[in-house]
From TrEMBL:
Superkingdom of source: Bacteria
Organism per entry: Psychrobacillus mangrovi
Keywords: Coiled coil
Coiled coil regions, renumbered to chain: 423-489
UniProt name for this protein: FapA family protein
Short name of any one Pfam family annotated for the protein: FapA
Domain Flagellar Assembly Protein A N-terminal region stretches: 91-259
């Protein structure tokens, strides 16, 4: 319901009114009006408040403002004339403060309205004209009006705000693993990386539109506000804006793959290895994404800031380390780790199977078919709900673990652990890191100023001074990397604190004896086959 507050009231004086008007006169009472004031005279001891109420209901223009005086007059049965209220205007016009609406209220009786229809129409038209109400007049049907009820007689046209800016970005590859019902299709048969060329379209912004002006009931134009502008979020080192056909278009400065850092679109450098990572390539360390069309040979490592994609169908065998410091890791064929291989991802790990290896992701670990004798860490650990198996080893998650099976018929020890979070410790950790970030940012600003000053004298520097200059630049670059990593970690902690998660372990088919179910500090060793969604209920495990 909308409430409208009115700023002024316009009174209509009905012509022909005498200075003193008798409203009603009987053997019991006399009710009269003089200059808008209403008086009462009691003539009979039988008159009471109940009779007065019945009489007053007939007069819509009567307003009682002094009830105590009325009660006193009735109780004392005094012939004295006593003021009890006012005789309000026959028609009242009310105008809203924003001049967008006018209402008329008629206080005459229904019979009076029906008998004086044309006169009332004329009065309303005059009132509107007197107050310069020229726009948006609304006809009023006097055959249907009720006494004392306000009716809209003029309504302005509100201004329409312009459309906000519209932004579209190039979509990243959908990293959504699936297994067909027959289980024959390769797990993660998906486009993990979206390759782009220099100058490629990355996104665009349609600018905000101008609004449509409104008009108030006085015919005055009400300016409309323009739509809200929305900035394109992107890494200015790898992308740029250009105006095209009335739009702002985002294009790539370099060849690479599409990515995202702290909510901003970026183009990461992209290294493609057509074969294997091994003797010919050596260990790889790259600031960007790496796509390996073969495998990673035993004992070799890959470390990249962006996403890592290893596409050999046979997977990885006894590689040493595969690590993404800012992105995801995708291993199409799985791992035979021989208790050597470790995979780390700042975001997610996608893998067909994990055999005797260690997997660690700050977000989700997706395993297609099985985890055998492996140690798996993640915010969430997800295996296929129809076929996935966790056999032996440990699966340790912050929020949840999902699998079809756990353990085996030989009752192999299999630990499923959901730790939850300690909000107090995380909050304190975020505070400490925020203070450290602020300190680094201040030092970085000072170093940047020093570099700018030194750069002015670069051409006249001695060898020793050039060494100092280069060391200062190197220190600045390291500091910028640390700032970036700290900011990402703080955002990750804040994201965890915002989550309201129901911690659980979900085994959809069968959890075999020898499986240990643990949530927070409550644990249970299964001695019989079971299944279900295990969680804490009233502080205890529902196993």
């Amino acid at each position: 319901m909308a409430f409208i507050f009115f700023e002024k009231k316009v009174k209509l004086k009905v012509k022909g009114c005498e200075a003193v008007m008798i409203i009603e006169e009987t053997d019991e009472v006399k009710l009269l009006e003089e200059n808008g004031r209403v008086f009462i005279e009691i003539r009979n001891n039988s008159f009471d408040l109940k009779k007065f109420d019945k009489m007053a209901r007939k007069y819509g223009r009567l307003r009682i403002s002094n009830f105590m005086a009325l009660k006193k007059a009735v109780d004392k049965k005094s012939l004295e004339r006593i003021e009890i209220g006012s005789w309000i205007d026959s028609i009242e016009l009310e105008i809203s403060p924003d001049k967008m609406q006018a209402l008329v209220t008629i206080y005459e009786s229904q019979s009076y309205i029906q008998e004086h229809t044309q006169e009332i129409y004329t009065t309303i038209r005059n009132l509107l004209a007197d107050h310069q109400i020229i726009y948006g007049q609304v006809p009023i049907d006097l055959q249907k009006v009720n006494t004392g009820k306000p009716y809209i007689v003029a309504s302005g046209l509100p201004p329409q705000k312009g459309a906000d800016a519209q932004i579209t970005y190039l979509q990243q590859a959908e990293k959504k693993p699936e297994i067909n019902e027959d289980g024959q299709a390769d797990y993660f048969d998906m486009n993990f990386l979206v390759e782009i060329k220099e100058g490629s379209w990355l996104g665009e912004k349609i600018p905000p539109r101008e609004g449509t002006n409104g008009i108030n009931i006085l015919g005055q134009v009400i300016p409309a506000s323009r739509g809200e502008d929305i900035p394109l979020k992107y890494d200015m080192q790898t992308a740029y804006e250009v105006g095209e056909a009335g739009k702002t278009v985002l294009r790539s400065k370099i060849n690479g793959v599409i990515g995202e850092v702290n909510g901003a679109l970026t183009v990461q450098k992209h290294l493609v290895i057509d074969g294997d990572v091994g003797l010919e390539t050596g260990n790889l360390k790259f600031d960007g994404s790496i796509q390996v069309k073969g495998t990673v040979m035993p004992g070799y490592s890959i470390v990249a800031s962006g996403d890592i994609s290893i596409e050999a169908k046979d997977g990885v065998n006894a590689a040493e380390l595969i690590k993404s410091t800012e992105g995801d890791v995708f291993i199409k064929g799985g791992i035979f780790g021989k208790d050597v291989t470790k995979v780390e991802a700042f975001r997610n790990i996608f893998i067909k199977h994990a055999n005797e290896c260690t997997l660690e992701a700050k977000e989700t670990v997706h395993i297609g078919f099985y985890s055998l004798g492996s140690t798996v860490f993640g915010n969430e650990i997800i295996l296929d709900e129809r076929k996935g198996k966790i056999i032996g080893g440990k699966a340790i998650a912050i929020n949840s673990i999902t699998s079809a099976y756990s353990g085996n018929n030989l009752e192999r020890k299999t630990e499923l652990i959901v730790q939850g979070i300690n909000r107090k410790i995380l909050t304190e950790n975020a505070k400490i890191k925020a203070e450290e970030l602020m300190k680094l940012q201040n030092e970085s600003t000072k170093l940047n100023a020093q570099i700018s000053q030194l750069n002015m004298f670069k051409d006249t520097m001695s060898k020793e001074q050039i060494v100092v200059y280069e060391q200062t630049k190197q220190k600045y670059n390291v500091m910028q990397t640390n700032i970036k990593e700290l900011d990402i970690e703080i955002q990750r902690i804040l994201k965890m604190l915002r989550q309201t998660t129901d911690y659980f372990i979900n085994i959809t088919k069968e959890a075999s004896p020898g499986t240990i179910i643990q949530i927070n500090n409550r644990s249970s060793l299964l001695t019989n086959p079971t299944k279900g969604k295990f969680k804490l209920e009233n502080g205890e495990l529902n196993v």
